[in-house]
């Protein structure tokens, strides 16, 4: 066994070397007629629209970026789990609480797997959900505003990786833990991992109207690592599948100790059964502390609440809730085909890929074709659920997506390629190199019943020599392939923001109609909103001073303020009075220990300034709003603490 | 009832659509406004022509060149509705009388009122375009060195700085014209029926 493993590793190394060589050749052969046709396929004429949106995870940037396909043009970086000084996200008074957790304010996150909401198994373009790996959280991004609308923290979880995938009517967005931990957390020796550490798989209910999330229940699982997951769909709707590794329950040197078992598992969770158990009261209410932050487009502010408990279903004690399907060698991806019949397990250390059949799984459960159990959870016989094996497709399979025409596409990290194979016959029909070390791939609608199988985006972990060098850290990248033909065709390389862990895509028609043009001023319910220049004022409350300010082309009102004193805490509540598309105003103040504001029409935002020096200090509009943008400025007079300059404010000396 | 009577009564009742439909529309196109700005002129108000907030946004632009804000009240907004209502009633009464001569009189009065209305509209636009704030932010001069005027055309299309301005009758004007044509038709048929 050991020598076989050694041989496999040798083969990996050799193969990787060979592929690198062939890749370089491929790169230089890429000219001629082919190249020009690829250029035509990705060319979107000036003023024309791309045909697809791609929402690409920002990885360790913590953000979500919005691209157009096929051009690969970047439209927007939506701040989600990390602060963004450009948009004042996490800096202004309104959004700072979005980054609140049970551990306090956290300015950074590691975003991973975006997924678009679905109706009847088809992407509906309303929201994008995305998980944060480090401090476990799930965010909902609105595709009306392209802003983060909500973030919910996940208790009993650590390394929130097998997340955030939605069921086919967005009943749930599901989050699994990569690392197992003591549940509830307690002070025990790390060596006592085995049997004491547990994992929680979280089912977060999504309100079909508002999209608001609520942690419905958690399924308590053995202390494995839960790597990725996908929902059942069509016939398998009601089930959720999670890949696992470290079924060895190692707590140290996992690269060796968690790679010993021949097979780990894909855990099949029957969430409809879970709902029944919840109804029957078979859950335990466990104390837990997690924070839920909701941003409102009416108050333009965040409401943050701390939750105190969670309902837990113990998979070891509740029959029929979870079954384990043995899957070779630390499966990473766990992907369900559009019909819901096939569950593809990518054993990342295995030479072949395992595909399970949902209907065979049901039959095996019915006939009790078990091969023992793990912590009371039945293990199904490997042969009983096996639909087929893709033999020797490449090295280091990670993720699979589908084109809806009976083909599957799998990324191979070690051999740096995308491989196309056929569902049912399991034969490999095409392979194309990636540059280099591809992780995830995305076909628009790829995690749904209805993929739009025209483009495939491969997301690479490293780029080495693919772009002009930018010092030791070079860009990560995505690559666009045309998959409409029998053979895949590489069309385009484009850089990404941060390391792209997965993406979600949809045709533009599905998404773009939701986009908002501006906020209606009359609907603004911000407690410090100023809806007319007649209402601007400055109010002192002890050392706190509230400036009720407005911005419109091309002035602030008021733009002269006197009577501020050193040591005051000055809140600038600025309302953008514009009611037109694409007319934001910005504002910044010299010496403010925070970011600018970037205020959309009809919106109110607040920044705090604590003047430390006597003098007259200017502020100005930071977004080139109009022909008189440079004139959009004002002054604040700051007097000594003991001065008796009266508080006053004016515009045009009135 | 005679055909001419029905035509005359229906024709004059069509005037009442002016209480809902705009009489005239001015549309401003510019590269930065892929959705053009629009101003609908009703008998009793100015309204957003193409998108919500158009009036507000036109005012916002006009302040750069020193134009007055568009009015919310004008004498015309009080007079026009009364005139329209009176003319509709007179038309119906003329129709009931069945006298083709009265139909014709009604048509002639409508024509005079129409010309007067358009003259009023022209002088209103002229006033707006020429009566500029001396402290205007942007001051342009024409080829002869005179201060640029910004009055939109009464009828047709004109270039004003970066805007192409279109000024044309709107749905209310068309229904009114149909009403007048019906009154003329009533006069002709009434004569024949005579």
TrEMBL record, chain B:
<keyword id="KW-0472">Membrane</keyword>
<feature type="transmembrane region" description="Helical">
    <location>
        <begin position="77"/>
        <end position="96"/>
    </location>
</feature>
<feature type="transmembrane region" description="Helical">
    <location>
        <begin position="103"/>
        <end position="122"/>
    </location>
</feature>
<protein>
    <recommendedName>
        <fullName>Copper chaperone NosL</fullName>
    </recommendedName>
</protein>
<keyword id="KW-1133">Transmembrane helix</keyword>
<feature type="transmembrane region" description="Helical">
    <location>
        <begin position="168"/>
        <end position="188"/>
    </location>
</feature>
<keyword id="KW-0812">Transmembrane</keyword>
